[in-house]
Amino acid sequence: MKVELYNDILKTIKTYNGPGRKCEKLLREKYPNVSDYTLGSIYSFEYQRKMKKNHQKFSKMTEELYRRYQKSVDDGQDVGVMLRLAEEITLSPALLARMILEKYYEKKSEESDEPVTRTFITKLMKDTTLIKDKDLAYEVYLCVVYDDQYGSITDCIKHSLGQEYELRLQRMVKDLNLAFRDEEHLRKHGYDKTPDIKLEIPIAVDGFIVNWIESKALFGDEEGHNIYFRDQYLSYWNSEKPRRLRPAGVRFRELLSELDIRLPTVSTLE
Predict the structure, then answer these.
(1) CA 157/CA 148 separation, integer angstroms
(2) Using alpha carbons only, what angle is made at residue 167 by residues 161 and 169, rounded to the nearest 5 degrees?
(3) Quick check: pTM over 0.85?
(4) Are 20 and 269 in contact (CB under 8 A)?
(5) What distance lies between CA 209 and its chain's CA centroid?
(6) Which of 33, 77, 101, 243 has the least C-beta neighbours within 10 A?
(7) 77 Cβ contact partners less than 8 Å away, ≥ 6 residues apart
């Protein structure tokens, strides 16, 4: 993907103010030659960046948001109060639900002196039947189910997709009759940070000697690459042995060329 096209997609996302699902539809219509996987991954990255910024802004307004929610419930408004409020302030429904849930239990803890921990709130977000207030429980449930870009359901989708592409990668390597060790084997033998595939015998691809293969079922933008380089890839690095990274769904050589490391990328979704 050319940087110009990527920047144009980002511009479309940033200038769109409607619901996320409609934005994804707009992207598919405007960029028919870009795969749905790629567009969805770009949108997901940008959405999460926006939510992190918005969370800092709205975390100072939690008390006000809680009061608005409580007043709407007391006034007998239809269910979906949090969803409507999240759309109004352009905040992730799951994130808003968590903020209001925390405030609810903080007020309860003032009466009972029971601490409200992050782990406790996460448990309630995953199982809303544990929330004592039935109205609040249903509102949180709706937000969690509706939000397909942020929260526990999104994490499950990403985890499942990542596992799917790891299995695809293993099948491809087996079909080529290459000897390798997978991530599970490497962990059992004490490796702290492990690639998806560690080749027993290196191979040559496009002029590169490949020792390991890492599959990422996401869009490889510059920020994402920088994070993975810092937290993961550099621990594999040997300057005499270039490696191969496989971010599913995109060729991003232009951005990679700005980095100080020779790391080619290939795609299986284009």
Answers:
(1) 9
(2) 105
(3) no
(4) no
(5) 31
(6) 33
(7) none
CA atoms within 13 A on the CB side of 148: 10
Helix (H) or strand (E) holding 29: helix 20-30
- Residue 37: the pLDDT is 81
Which residue, among 53, 43, 48, 49, has the nearest Cα to 16 in the 3D structure?
43
DSSP 235: G
> Which residue matches tokens 């992190």?
52
What token pair was written down for 214? 């890492």
Query: DSSP state, 24?
Result: H
Compute the distance between CA of residue 264 and CA of residue 257 in angstroms, rounded to an integer: 9
Position 242, amino acid: P
| CA-wise closest residue to 203 among 164, 173, 233, 227 | 173
Q: For 38-96, how does the pLDDT look when each residue is reduced to its tens digit (9 = 90+)?
A: 888 888 888 888 887 777 778 788 899 999 999 999 999 999 999 999 988 888 899 99
Q: Would you give the end-to-end CA distance of the chain in angstroms?
A: 10
- pLDDT tens by residue, 93-124: 999 999 999 999 988 876 555 678 889 999 99
Q: Which of 223, 257, 166 is nearest to 44 (CA)?
A: 223
